[in-house]
Design a protein that fits this description.
six-stranded mixed sheet, 3 domains
């Protein structure tokens, strides 16, 4: 019997017990061994011995520096577990927009028997193996550990600094995103930013400069697509795959897609002032996209959280060109305030999100915009970006 070790007692690894019913979990947060409600053994990470393990599968969030990863001798990813038993597979990655692109693509292809999963929230083990298409939002964490699985179609959105503390450098982060392309085979398709046009691969490569360029290549009329800005790019990428697979462009179907909350979600308070919940903007590029969308107005911007080791100077260079005042929250608020002083940008140092909202409430004029677009993870003060966004919305509704 194959001895399987699952690193991290988490959603992805728990789902893999369908494949490996005798697996043992090892988790950094476990202090004493126990059996869970399903009878699986869960042990402290310190109990792991590579001599007694034939296969190790990590939860994607576990970084390469973790002792479990360093000890593993037979490490594969969740995706590798399904390398020989999956339908036509589309991977979607990049820094921003991959969730929306995945959702839009599923919306377009559901009539062709597609299922969406991966980083979007559904582990591969919970997908149906005999369906026609898997559409997988694919993180750089997963690709770092993936060596066997390869997509049939790879859709790559632009790559910008993110998760640098996990990967160690921008180069390593970028390398993880590009890793699948070199392994793709003849007959497979990679849609990638023009920046990477010289990458070596056997796949058919379609490069694009922006959404307008890509739409031209696929004969898609952007004027018939109702989405704007970053969402237009997501829509064009989804429509491009539909065109590749089924030679169709369905404007009515894409325009019927409803965006998730928490990404540039607009709200009005009791005074009819505009507040924007963009809590999902957890990196610089996403925040710049939001600032660009509302660039015609003076913006009261809430920034801050866990910035994951990213150099924030690029953001402040952009802020210099904006009509903006920033309200700094989270674990990096002192860092943000020092940068604001350096770049001569108006700011207020806030205790927390509620304090920032209260200060904006006193300053916000009717023709201005209040924007929560933190350019940072929420996990320093919240359970998730969802909780951060929900608290933001609740406070706006309570303004009198």
């Amino acid at each position: 019997m194959q001895r399987v070790s699952l690193f991290g007692y988490a959603k992805t690894t728990k789902s893999l017990t369908k494949l490996y019913p005798h697996a043992i979990f090892y988790d950094d947060k476990v202090l004493k061994p126990f059996r869970d409600n399903n009878g699986f053994r869960v042990k402290p990470s310190s109990d792991f011995n590579p001599k007694y393990s034939d296969l190790e599968v990590p939860s994607p969030a576990i970084p390469p520096s973790n002792p479990l990863i360093l000890q593993a001798k037979n490490l594969i990813s969740e995706y590798d577990c399904f390398a020989k038993n999956s339908p036509l597979t589309i991977w979607i990655s990049g820094t921003n927009g991959k969730t929306t692109t995945t959702q839009m693509m599923q919306h377009l292809l559901e009539d062709k028997g597609s299922q969406a999963g991966g980083n979007i929230g559904t582990p591969l083990a919970e997908l149906t193996p005999d369906t026609d298409i898997w559409i997988l939002e694919t993180s750089s964490f997963t690709m770092h550990y993936t060596n066997l699985a390869v997509p049939n179609i790879y859709v790559l959105l632009p790559i910008n600094p993110d998760h640098l503390s996990w990967h160690g450098s921008m180069g390593e982060y970028e390398q993880a995103k590009l890793k699948p392309i070199s392994k793709m085979r003849e007959g497979e398709v990679a849609i990638i930013p023009n920046k990477y046009k010289d990458i070596k691969t056997s796949a058919h490569v379609i490069c694009y400069e922006n959404e307008t360029d890509l739409a031209y290549k696929f004969d898609i009329d952007t004027k018939k697509v109702n989405f704007k800005g970053a969402f237009l790019a997501d829509a064009i990428l989804a429509m491009s795959v539909d065109k590749i697979l089924f030679d169709r462009v369905d404007y009515e179907k894409i325009n019927s897609f409803v965006l998730d909350p928490h990404r540039q979600e607009e709200l009005r308070d009791s005074k009819n002032r505009l507040w924007v919940n963009d809590t999902k903007a957890t990196n610089i590029d996403a925040t710049i996209a939001a600032l660009n969308r509302y660039g015609g107005s003076h913006i009261h911007l809430i920034l801050g959280g866990d910035d994951k080791g990213v150099d924030l100077n690029e953001l402040f260079e952009y802020l210099k060109s904006c009509s903006v005042k920033i309200y700094n929250i989270g674990s990096n608020k002192e860092k943000l305030s020092n940068l604001a002083k350096e770049y001569k940008i108006s700011f207020e140092l806030c205790e927390n999100l509620g304090d920032a909202i209260g200060k904006i409430d006193k300053n916000l004029k009717e023709n201005e915009v209040a924007l929560l677009s933190p350019a940072a993870s929420s996990l320093d003060e919240f359970n998730s970006y969802l909780q951060r966004g929900d608290e933001f919305k609740a406070d706006i509704l309570n303004i009198s």
